Structure formats: C-alpha cells, structure tokens
Amino acid sequence: MGYRSFILPILFLTVIILSLGVSSAVTLDSAGSMGVQFLDKNVHGNVMKNPAIKKYLSDTPFNQKMVSKLKQGSLVYRLGNGKGKTILICGGIHGNEPQGPLAVIKFMNYLKNKKINGTVYIIPFAIPVDTEKNSRNYVRSSKHYDPNREFNIAGTPPNKILKFALAHKVDYIIDVHAGTEVNSTGLVYFQKDSEKKWAAYIQKKTGAIAKTNPQKGTFRSEASKKGIRAITMEVDKKFNIGKTSDKESKMLIYACVYLHLIN
Q1: Contact criterion met (CB below 8 Å) for 211 and 179
Q2: CA 166/CA 29 separation, integer angstroms
Q3: What is the spatial distance between Cα 134 and Cα 186, in angstroms, rounded to a whole number?
Q4: Range of the domain at 157
Q5: Residue 263 lies inside a defined structural domain of this protein
Q6: Which CATH number covers residue 41?
C-alpha cells in the first residue's frame, strides 16, 4: 500500500472524530463524563478576576479547564442518559452574585457519581465577562442593562440562553441567584401553580421560603410563557459565600430529586 493510500483513511477518520465533537468532552472521573460546548463567545471573560470566585472556586483540573474555556465564551455542559425529562440549570446571570456559579459547580461535582435519569444542561457562568467585572449589569451599545430583564429581547445574551432551552426542548429550568433581601433559609420563586408543588418540596426539605413574583423579562417569566416550568433560587448575598453556596447546592439537589433526575 502506498503512502497516499495509507494517509487518506486516517485523515478521513480524523475529520469524522472532530465533527462529532469528541475533543470537547471532559472527564469528571473514571465512572463518567460530560459533553461541553460553547454557548455564546461574545460574553467571554476571565472569571478568576472576580475575588470571590478566585477565593472559593476549588483548584481542580476540571475547574482549571473550565476557567480556561470561559475566556473564549460561555459554556453549556450536558449530562445524563438522554431518557426522561430535560432540565437546564443556569448560574451567573448576574455577575456580582458568585454564590450562584459556585453552587452550580458544587452540584456538578455532586452529580459525578450519580445516575442521572434524563438530560441536564448546566450553564455555570451565563455571562463570564460580567463575573470578571463583578457587575450585575452588562453593557450593550454603551448602555447598562440588567440581563435578568432581557430574556425577551432578541439577540441579547440572556435571550440566547432562552433560545437554547427552546431548541433543546427543555422541560424545566432552575435559575440560580443570590439576593440582598433573602434570609438565611433561602428563597424559591415560582411563576405558576404548575411550579408551586416543586417550590413547596424544596421549601419542605431545606426551609427555603417559596413565593411567586412574576416580572417581565426574567428567565423564569419568559420561560414560563413558552411552556417551560421554571423556578428561581436565591440565597443571602450578604452572608458567607462558602456557606451560602453550600446551601444553594443543597437546594439544587432537592430540586432535582423532586423531578426524579437523581434519587
């Protein structure tokens, strides 16, 4: 067999592998792996410039790789067996609420040894550049906007997240935040009666207060209009970040137990 005959099949196989996105898979441990892809390269940022992220994000190979990729754009991870419900978990809509991304990453670590019944998409840092700047707002055309009031505005970073949810037929959304008017038990906002039992279960298991608070343009409200069941979780922004992110990761666990995503 000549050199050309030998090399062409190899090149063909390489193209196939790259097209399947094998290079974008990141392994958590020997028991499982997850897929990862860029969601929005326009919002790239160095999240380690945020003092709270630098202090509380553990220095693991997985986190190092994630931080490196975030410098190129926001990321969405995919886990699960593809059967049953499809869930989207999002942290970091507001860049000055580090508790959310930290809780989401802790929850991802919790999942690594769990059987996942369904599909879960996870966006740890929705707008990395805002986390880098420790900013609640993002800048568009020299003006500052609250991203959690712009999920209904086409072309904005939050609207791209909503479109991703719709394109991937997401059934449930959990939007993870921190707030200044939240007590130590945490808070769960729900939109409709269809989400009320879900919020009540989290309240029962964690002590978090459950209540409704519809606001136009929020992830929760705009997703609900599209037929996706959605809740917002918050913890106290003023309290110890390590402890509140632990609290919020537990709220995430029970939110997913209720949906039978995990046991």
Answers
A1: no
A2: 30
A3: 22
A4: 25-258
A5: no
A6: 3.40.630.10
| Residues forming a β-bridge with 229 | 172
Structural element, H or E, at residue 77: strand 74-80
Angle ∠(6,22,157) on CA atoms, nearest 5: 140
Work out how many domains the chain is built from and give that number. Answer: 1
Tokens 């063909």, residue? 12
Query: Is 159 contained in some domain?
Result: yes
Q: What is the tens place of the pLDDT at every residue in 191-207?
A: 999 899 999 999 999 99
**Closest by Cα among 211, 202, 105, 121 to 162:** 121
Residue 47: φ, ψ to 5°: -65, -20
Vertex 208, ends 218 and 58: CA angle to 5°?
A: 80
Q: Is residue 250 part of a domain?
A: yes
Residues near 152 by beta carbon (within 8 Å), at least 6 away in sequence: 159, 216, 217, 222
pLDDT tens digits for range 110-168:
998 899 999 999 999 999 999 999 999 999 889 999 999 999 999 999 999 999 999 99
CA distances from 101 to 83, 122, 158, 249 (A): 26, 10, 16, 10
In a domain, 14, yes or no: no
Is this model's pTM higher than 0.70 or not?
yes
- d(CA 134, CA 150) in angstroms, rounded, equals 19
Token code pair at residue 167: 């394109």
| CB contact at 8 A, 101 and 91 | yes
Q: Which residue has the tokens 């390590």?
A: 242
